[in-house]
Design brief:
The complex is a heterodimer of chains A (476) and B (72). Chain A has helices at residues 4-7, 12-18, 33-36, 38-58, 76-108, 112-134, 145-160, 172-184, 189-220, 225-250, 256-282, 286-296, 300-316, 324-337, 343-356, 370-373, 378-393, 398-431, 442-466, 468-471, and one strand at 252-253. Chain A is mainly alpha-helical. In chain A, helix 12 (286-296) runs antiparallel to helix 19 (442-466) and helix 13 packs across helix 18 (398-431). Chain B is α+β, with helices and mostly antiparallel strands and 72 residues long. Chain B has a 3-stranded antiparallel beta sheet, with no helix packed on it. Classes of the chains: A mainly alpha (476), B alpha+beta (72).
Chain lengths: 476, 72
C-alpha cells in the first residue's frame, strides 16, 4: 500500500524543503532579532560607522581617507589617474565593507563561501557605476548612478543570468537600511521635528486613500478581501514589506503575497524612471520632487533610487532648483517617517478587522505587541544618528559647520551612504528576474493600477501645490 | 507540568525561516527581505496554504514531533 506521503502532490519547493523541515521553523525570534534581523544589523553597522566617524572628528581626525569616491572627470585618462592615485584607499574601503558584512551575514546565517564572491562582484560593478556617474556629461544623458545600477543589474540578471547562490550577496534591504541609518547622520534632527508632522499628515492622506481605493476596487472586481488588503498595503504603506506584513496579519492565502509582490515590483520599477523624468519635465524643486517620490513610490529602495537620481540632476543642472540633499531629505521624511513606521499599526488594525469582521475560521485575537515586533527598527538607528550629529554640530557656527563639520565628519559619512545605496540599487536590478515573478492576473492588476494612478495624482497635488512651501524650503 | 500552547510556531505544518520564505515567494528579496522586522515571525501553513502570524492557531494544529512532518 502506498503511504500517505506518496499520495500527496508536492510542489518542488515543498518537497525540497520538507527534507529539512525541522530547520524551517523558528518558534519565536523575539529579542533574538537583535542579531537575527537585518533591521538591527543595519543599526549596528550604521551607528558603528557614525560613532567611529565622530570619535575621529573629536580627536582632530576624519574618516575621509577611507570614504573615497571618484571625482568628476572629462576624459578616461583623468578617471584612470584618479584610481592610480587613490587605489590603496579603494582597497581599504572594500576591506572595510567586506569585514563588516562578513560579520553581519555570518551571524544572520548566510554562507560566507557564497556571500564573499558575490559581494566582490557587487563592489566591482559599483565602482564602475560610480565612475560612469562621475563623468561630467553623465547628467545630459540621464546616466544617473541609481538608474545605471538598476538597468545594468536587470540586464545582467535577465539577459545573461547568474547562479542562484550569488543572491546571498544581493541583499537589497540590508544595504538600503544601512544607507538610511547613515543618512540620519546627514539629516538635522531639527528638520525631522519641523517637517516630520507635515510628512505624516501628507503621507497619511495618501496612504489611507490609496489603500481604500485598491481595496474597494479589488472587492468590486470580486477579489478576496485578504488579497485586497495585501494589495492595498503594498500600494499604500511600504511596498513589498507592507504587502508581506499585512498578508501575515490577515492570514492571506499562499498565492496572495506573490501577486502583490509582482504588482509592487513592476510599478516600483516604472516609478523609478517615471517620477524623476516627470519631475524634470515639470522643472520641480528637488525637495518637492523628493516629497512626491516619497508619497508615490512603493518601496524604500526604489524610492531612494528615484530621489537620488533626481537629486543628482538638481545638483548638476542649473535650471532645476534645489540640491541633492533636498530630494533625499524630503523623500526620507515622507517615506520613512510618514509611511514606514506605521506598518505595525496597519497590521494590527487589519488583523483585528480580519478576526472580528471577516470571520476567519482559525486563529485568535491579534496581539498588540505585534505593533512593536513589526516596527521597522532601522528607523531607530536613523533617528539616533541624526541626534548624534545634530548635537556635535550644535557648537559650531554656520560658517564653521561648512568649513569643518561638513568636510571632516558629515561628508565622509555621506560618501559611505552613497556606496551603500549603489550596492542596493545594483542588487535590485540583479534580483529582479521577471520570469520568476508570479503571474498577477488582470483583476489584481486593475485594482493596483487604479491605486497607483490615484496615488501619483494625489501625491503630486499635495507635494507641489498644498505643501510646496515646506518641501521647497527644507534647506532653510 | 508545562503545556505548550497550540500556536502555529509549534505546529508541524508551519514553515517560517527567512530562507524558506524567500524561496517560496519569488520577488520577496527584490525590495524587501525574509529577515526584515516587519515580517515578525509570520510563516506559511502547508496544511491550509495560508500565510499567517506565528501566534495564531487552528483545529489542524499538530505538535512538532508527534506527527511526521514528512507528510508533506
Amino acid at each position: 500500500m502506498a503511504n500517505e506521503k506518496d499520495e500527496i502532490e508536492l510542489t518542488p519547493t515543498e518537497r525540497e524543503w520538507d527534507e529539512e523541515a525541522d530547520d524551517l521553523r523558528l518558534k519565536s525570534v523575539g529579542w533574538k532579532e537583535l542579531w537575527l534581523k537585518e533591521d538591527w544589523w543595519a543599526i549596528w553597522v550604521g551607528l558603528g560607522i557614525v560613532i567611529v566617524a565622530v570619535l575621529f572628528f573629536l580627536n582632530g581626525g576624519s574618516i575621509k581617507w577611507i570614504a573615497i569616491k571618484p571625482g568628476k572627470w572629462d576624459t578616461l585618462g583623468q578617471a584612470a589617474a584618479h584610481f592610480g592615485a587613490h587605489l590603496p584607499q579603494y582597497i581599504a574601503m572594500f576591506v572595510m565593507w567586506l569585514a563588516i558584512f562578513v560579520v553581519a551575514t555570518r551571524v544572520m546565517g548566510y554562507k560566507l563561501s557564497e556571500f564573499i564572491p558575490s559581494f566582490i562582484f557587487v563592489f566591482v560593478f559599483s565602482v564602475i557605476i560610480f565612475i560612469i556617474g562621475a563623468w561630467s556629461q553623465a547628467h545630459h544623458y540621464n546616466l544617473e548612478p541609481p538608474l545605471v545600477a538598476l538597468l545594468l543589474g536587470m540586464l545582467i540578471s535577465n539577459l545573461i543570468g547568474l547562479p542562484g547562490w550569488m543572491d546571498t550577496g544581493f541583499r537589497v534591504e540590508f544595504y538600503i537600511k544601512i544607507g538610511i541609518v547613515l543618512l540620519g547622520a546627514t539629516l538635522p534632527f531639527t528638520l525631522i521635528v519641523w517637517a516630520g508632522p507635515v510628512a505624516i499628515v501628507q503621507a497619511s492622506i495618501v496612504s489611507i486613500t490609496t489603500f481604500l481605493v485598491i481595496y474597494f476596487v479589488a472587492r468590486k472586481l470580486g477579489l478576496d478581501r485578504r488579497l485586497g488588503a495585501t494589495l492595498g498595503a503594498g500600494g499604500a504603506v511600504c511596498g513589498v514589506s507592507g504587502a508581506i506584513a499585512i498578508a501575515g496579519a490577515v492570514g492571506a492565502k499562499k498565492e496572495h503575497a506573490p501577486i502583490a509582490i509582482t504588482m509592487v515590483i513592476l510599478w516600483a520599477i516604472v516609478m523609478i524612471f517615471f517620477l524623476p523624468l516627470a519631475s524634470r519635465a515639470l522643472g520641480l524643486h528637488a525637495g518637492v520632487a523628493g516629497a512626491w517620490v516619497g508619497t508615490s513610490e512603493f518601496a524604500d529602495a526604489a524610492g531612494f533610487a528615484a530621489a537620488q537620481a533626481y537629486g543628482n540632476v538638481a545638483e548638476n543642472l542649473p535650471d532645476i532648483p534645489g540640491k541633492q540633499d533636498d530630494a533625499v531629505w524630503a523623500f526620507t521624511l515622507m517615506k520613512v517617517v510618514g509611511r514606514d513606521i506605521w506598518i505595525g499599526i496597519w497590521a494590527f488594525v487589519l488583523a483585528l478587522v480580519s478576526t472580528m469582521k471577516w470571520e476567519r475560521k482559525a486563529g485568535q485575537k491579534p496581539n498588540p505587541a505585534e505593533i512593536w515586533w513589526r516596527f521597522p527598527k532601522f528607523v531607530i538607528g536613523f533617528v539616533i544618528a541624526s541626534i548624534i550629529i545634530t548635537l556635535i554640530s550644535k557648537g559650531y557656527s554656520f560658517s564653521d559647520y561648512g568649513k569643518i563639520v561638513k568636510p571632516e565628519l558629515v561628508g565622509p559619512v555621506k560618501t559611505l551612504r552613497t556606496w551603500a545605496f549603489i550596492f542596493c540599487f545594483f542588487s535590485i536590478g540583479l534580483t529582479t528576474r521577471f520570469r520568476e515573478l508570479a503571474s498577477a492576473g488582470t483583476k489584481p492588476f486593475m485594482a493596483f493600477t487604479t491605486g497607483v494612478v490615484v496615488n501619483v495624482v494625489l501625491g503630486f497635488i499635495l507635494s507641489a501645490l498644498v505643501f510646496v512651501s515646506y518641501w521647497s524650503n527644507l534647506s532653510h | 507540568m508545562t503545556t505548550m500552547k497550540p500556536r502555529c510556531m509549534h505546529c508541524a505544518h508551519f514553515r517560517n525561516t527567512p530562507a524558506f520564505l524567500e524561496k517560496t515567494f519569488p520577488g520577496l528579496k527584490v525590495m524587501s527581505s525574509g529577515m526584515a522586522s516587519v515580517r515578525a515571525d509570520d510563516g506559511l501553513c502547508l496544511k491550509r496554504d495560508v500565510y499567517l502570524a506565528a501566534y495564531y492557531w487552528c483545529e489542524a494544529f499538530e505538535p512538532v514531533g508527534k506527527t511526521a512532518v514528512a507528510q508533506y
